[in-house]
Amino acid sequence: MDKVRIIAIPFAGGNRYSFGDIEKHIAKKTEWITLELPGRGGRFKENLLTSVEDMVDDLFQKIIPHVLKEGEYVIYGHSLGTILGYELTRRIRNKGLKQPSCLFFTGRGAPGFERCRKKRSHLPKDEFWEEIDKIGGLPSDFFEHKELLDLYYPIMKSDFKAVENYKFQEMEKPFSMPIHICMGEDEIGEEDDDKTPLPSMKAWANESTATCTFKLLEGDHFFILNHSKTIADKIYNAAISGDVVAH
To answer: pTM (2 decimals)?
Structure first.
């Protein structure tokens, strides 16, 4: 069997190191590639992007060399990375390139669901970080380091702006590859509480004619940090399940 390739797309503020805890648990016969947007990590000097469309344009160019390789690949994304992974797959299909054998997404309801009803990107810096703290996932001492807050503020602000302004357009034809969805139990709830209603998670099933699986794990929006091995195993098992998209 060819080496399994997993192409990962990070969450808001993320970079190529964001999935390090998951990657270290992945099987050795797996190639893990984390795509990185401009303005962070190794691309820190490049201008930040503030729209999903521009981000997908950028990621499409970065993913082409991996798509053209022999063998199958999987796209994995968390939160913002979920929307980018979804739209990137649409772009790949529209361009007639080899599609992923499956999609594995965490931390977000179906693309038509607007979780970001609060326009956090418009908030002053102090209020913005208060909102980010409520979402969870960052160590408490992070908020005590002004230099880190100053460094990450424009990055996070641009990423949140992209999500907040994202306009979902229904596909004329659903995907034909399996989609696997995993979310934190504490993320599920009433929309008015800035949570994801269960039907909004289950609506992912509308995006493909193939199997769509759902799993809830203990934790909040960043439950993946406490379940890194479980997530790694689930992604790998999905990748080798034998479900291959009809190209």
So the answer is: 0.94
